[in-house]
Amino acid sequence: MASHIIVFGNEKGGSGKSTNCMHVTTALVRMGFSVGALDLDLRQRSFSRYCENRISQSEKHKLSLAVPDIVELPEIAPADLAEGENVYDRRLTEAVAAMEGSYDFIVIDCPGSHTRLSQVAHSLADTLVTPLNDSFIDFDLLARIEPESQKIIGPSVYSEMVWSARQLRAQAGLKPMDWIVVRNRVGTQRMHNKKKITDAVESLAKRIGFRVAPGFSERVIFRELFPRGLTLLDLADIGVKNLNISNIAARQEVRELVRALKLPGVSIDF
Question: Which PANTHER family match (predicted)?
Fold first, then answer.
């Protein structure tokens, strides 16, 4: 059975992408799925460091925390490349080919910038998850808007890249990509502005073909968990018995996000 590939992509940093990625990945492992993971942010490696922190925490406190298998991109000798072949294309395709069929899910975390690796990864996505801060500054990732009327003029460079990735999948005979835009940090702005963003996102969703899913609110707990490699699903495992209202609400947000992705074979039981 082929692995289902989930790609977390956004060309703007600070959208909560790695946090979303870590919580979804951990949820899948906790539910008993085998998950292989690739971190394509070769510079910051936030997702890899999150997993490393998690392993360290598990060993230090003798916990049994669910952790995906982190897979490194293989090194390719220049002599092994065909004429005109891009080394990053080869590294990624070889890594995914080696993982294919060995895992239920392959999760790929892309950098918050446009790179060749990210571009290729998007064309591999069965499910593409694009976290977006709920503001017009970040909405610019998806579309160009007229500044006065805030009317949508056309798709952004990123949206056009996703369109190209979809075309490549169609040409290769692969099933259509399911693109989900995740709205993080909803509710921090005034209601009038919030409604305008909601209307703009929903209008664009119909035009360029993505689904909209609820993401994570701005909460201190997410920042506090990273150094220990923990997620909101682990609190009971580390002895936290009485969750406060904010933590309960945050854990529900994780459930809602996993449910919204509609991944094959996944039913919410955490």
Answer: COBQ_COBB_MIND_PARA NUCLEOTIDE BINDING DOMAIN-CONTAINING PROTEIN, P-LOOP CONTAINING NUCLEOSIDE TRIPHOSPHATE HYDROLASE
